Amino acid sequence: MNWKTFLRQQTTQPVFLWQMVAVVLSIGVIGGVITSRLPHRYSPDSNSIGDVVAAVRQATLTSGGIDDLRNQNVPYEHLLIAFAFSADVDWIDPEQAASMIGDDGDRSTIAVELIRSVQDEVPTKTLVQMADQRVAYSRLAIGAFYLSQQRYEAAAKNFEAEVDVSDSPIARQFAVDCYNAANDVTAIRRLASDPQYQSLISPSDRLLIAESDQDWGKIFWIIPLLMAERMDNAMAAGLAVFAAAGWFVVLMQMGQADARTGVRWWLCLVGVALGCLSIWPTHLLNIWQEINWDLLEGDDWFQNVKYYVLGVGLREELAKLLLLLPLMPFLASRRNTIEALLVSASVGLGFAMVENMGYFSRSGGTDSMGRFLTANFAHIAMTGLIGLAVARVIWKQQDVSHALLVFLLVMLAHGFYDAAIAVPELSEYSIGGMILFILLAYAFFHEVRMAYVPRSETISLTATFLFAVSAMTATTFMYVSWQVGLIAAATLLATDIVSLALLVYMYLREMPNSLIR
């Protein structure tokens, strides 16, 4: 028996497939244990407040906690941010902070008073007096306090005041970033004209000014710069590309790309590229909705649901569809159902890959992990179903009303799926988001099954699917364990892993060469 025959036989056997899954996931767990124990250097990508806060959160979540920052030559300004965010959850006490500073002077006193301020939820009299006396870094400490309370305007004013005392370049960067977080266009515009601050003005800051001026030409060209700025984490970008590559392999085998009548692989690659570019009009639509519809996240749960349904769901599905339309002439000529479905799905995959990179950059690879594993397939299914509905209109198999209905249903599913994850008031209904995800999976796999022609393969489609999902889960678990520790990684990924398990069940139930009859 040659190796091809061996694989052809084994990769259709349930025992072999489940053993393969168990081995891959076990490697992920063992790897997670190992990576969680690796030394974690404090290395923010820049002095921007977002990068510093993300690095601080990672430091406090690892096994050594904030004490890992000791002896790492962390700038004093960064330590104050770390103390402000750690004191809020009782991960550090004043004595520990004084010990980490390592002197008995003003810097140690400022650190101690900052921690007491956070714990008392108001700046201490001592810290305020030091600021009034223009003691270096006292204003920065007060700014760190307000930052931990998400009072960005007050934080920015104190960081800017610190510059007048200590001329700290890090305080300058903090001031710019906090004015941006507070959407204070007047302050950003003022700092952008100041020679001391001009080099610190980022694409995000320039976009804020352009939005205020409603200068759509500038907005259009700033967006790609902003996208590039949010993709500077090489490891996170690598993980996003790895996951996308895994799904692309599954789609190619699902579409039998090696067969003459199968899906054209190059068309799917073009679809992925167009999906990446669809982030551009998505940002543009986001800004247009903010300006014209006042569609923003707020404190009201209904407003937030409206934001995710009419905002996120509508603009993302519309942007992906707009970038898919140039491929429709190629799909119309062959009238191939599975090709139309999978080429459209490739556009969704490209979008998800770039979106994941942006999530990692903004959250330090932690907050967004609760959706990373399912985001790729969710966009694959949503864009695939919409694209197929449009193709059927072109083929005159269905009328326009059917395509509009599919778009509306997918848009609503997308919006409510995101809202179930992101809106705190809906947390007890989070299972609703999971149900929507499974319904999307069912609809997608049902379309594949109806068009799929089973054939003999060296490695079965089911084996490829199970290996890809297992490998993505294992790799992600190792990465997150390295970032935030083993227990936190398991907590962050728990819901996604349950959703993936249901996705696997739906695949095995619907696909013709599955394990469930």
From TrEMBL:
Pfam family, one: PrsW-protease
The protein, known as: Protease PrsW
UniProt KW Membrane keyword: yes
Signal peptide: none
PANTHER family assigned: PROTEASE PRSW (PTHR36844)
Biological source species: Rubripirellula lacrimiformis
Keywords: Membrane, Transmembrane, Transmembrane helix
Transmembrane annotation, as ranges: 15-34, 234-253, 265-287, 340-360, 372-391, 403-423, 429-446, 458-480, 486-508
Molecular functions per Gene Ontology: peptidase activity
